[in-house]
Amino acid sequence: MINFICPVCGEELAEQERLYKCEKGHCYDKSKFGYVNLLQSQKSSAKRHGDDRVMVRARRDFLSGGYYGFLLDFLCEITDKYLQNGAAVLDAGCGECYYSAGLKSFLAENGKNAFFAGVDISKDALEFASKRKCNIPFAVASLFDLPFADESFDAVLNIFSPEAYDEFHRVLKKGGFLIRVIPLEKHLFDLKAAIYDKPYLNEVPSAEIADFKFVKSSQIKAQIRLDSNEAVQNLFKMTPYYYKTGKDDQQKINGLEQFSTQAEFEIRIYKKD
Fold first, then answer.
1. Which of 12, 117, 140, 204 is within CB 3.0–4.6 Å of 37 for a Cys-Cys bond?
2. CB–CB of 65/235 below 8 Å?
């Protein structure tokens, strides 16, 4: 069982039919989709937070096509190896919940009961996540102010989302694992080459993280073939490139019906001593 804590007083939130409530009387209504908003608006002046509806929908549709299924399969192997029965897992930056829903299902099929929770700053993402009906509690919240008590989790998943290492360290139990997925230098390079006159390589951050013990890293690479322009457009729109590209460059992929590009990831595993 994983419980959220009140972002105002830090007390544990008890789930009721339509809301969450702490002992001090602070209440947070569930949305009609089932997630709860625990983001403190006074801490941010932004009108919108996180991925918008266009990006979330594109990512859902792309991932539903199985194009990154090889990454999910690899994460299933890792979680099966490192997590014990009954483990509590936080998907930090869960998006529309493709990976944690898949991991939960895989572990259950292999005789392991795991408790998942998902946090994302995007309401649109959590609307789509809630529609998966995967029985995972979701909260709108910042990764830099996680609504969980200290040492609540056996593992934190950080898949293509911002790194909030101090908070990850705080909510992990001693001996807990941080599983981080990042794109490698040439990830989607052919897609960028189709759009930009001068495509660039991705920056790959250092593997060192303060206060975490580095356990292992693995790289997995595949050439993915997209079988329709819709799939190409979905891939483009789910990346930051779409929002940083002018209309003229965006139109360069309009006629691409068959297309292939690299998908290259590194999975880094850390442990909290």
1. 140
2. no
Q: What is the mean pLDDT of residues 198-207?
A: 94
pLDDT tens digits for 38-81? 997 645 444 556 899 999 999 999 999 999 999 999 999 999 99
Residues 6+ apart with CB under 8 A from 2: 88, 90, 115, 116, 117, 137, 148, 152, 153
Q: Decide yes or no: CATH 3.40.630.30 for domain 34-40+49-271.
A: no
Measured in degrees and rounded to the nearest 5, phi and psi for residue 127 equal -65, -45
Residues 144 and 255: their CA atoms lie apart, in Å, by: 41
Domain ranges in the chain? 34-40+49-271
Is the whole-model pTM more than 0.70? yes
* Residue 83: strand pairing partners: none
200 pLDDT more than 80: yes
Whole-angstrom Cα distance, residue 78 to residue 71?
A: 11
Neighbouring residues of 45: CB distance < 8 A, sequence distance ≥ 6: none
CA distance 250 to 244: 10
What pLDDT digit, counting tens, does each position of 97-155 carry? 999 999 999 999 999 999 999 999 999 999 999 999 999 999 999 999 999 999 999 99
Distance (Å, whole) CA 227 – CA 258 = 5
- Give the pLDDT of residue 42: 46
